[in-house]
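Most newcomers find our protein records easier to grasp once they have seen one. Sequence and backbone structure share a record, each on its own labelled line. To make this concrete, we reproduce a full record directly below:
***
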Amino acid sequence: MEPRFNLFGTETGAKLAKRFAGLGQAVHQSPLPVLTAELVSLRASQLNGCGFCLDMHVKEAVAAGEDPLRLHLVAGWRETTVFTEAEQAALAFAEEGTLLARDGVSDETWANVRKHYDDEQVAALVCLVGLINAANRMAVITQQKGGSYQVGALAQAQ
């Protein structure tokens, strides 16, 4: 199946993509650990069924030094021993922030995130969950497929 629309092939889409990429870079330049950001993006993309974003964040995580075993276990992170308590807090936050229709982010999850991350990191984490969910939705709506992403392409879009 081919993508149904080249969103970024339009003038409006290209302008928005450039700004969107800039927001993503701001998150990656924050004190939130890059690998945590990739794990969060990967988990939200799994929940949203976004093949393009799954492809991107797996490749970016590996390029940043992430262990492929951990990437294979993200979907079942609660049933593993390979993620730190801080990463588990971020993954729970990503899930609850993605599945807002259920109950939103619980007080328990919020408290756990606050236990492990400072104000700057929490700001980045909140913005990251919002951004990855927006990216997932755009890619799923336009039926962008995973498999062709090249590491660093998003950074070059600025």
The chain has a mean pLDDT of 93. The chain has one domain: 34-149. The chain is about 70% helix and 0% strand. The CA atoms of residues 31 and 121 lie 6 Å apart.
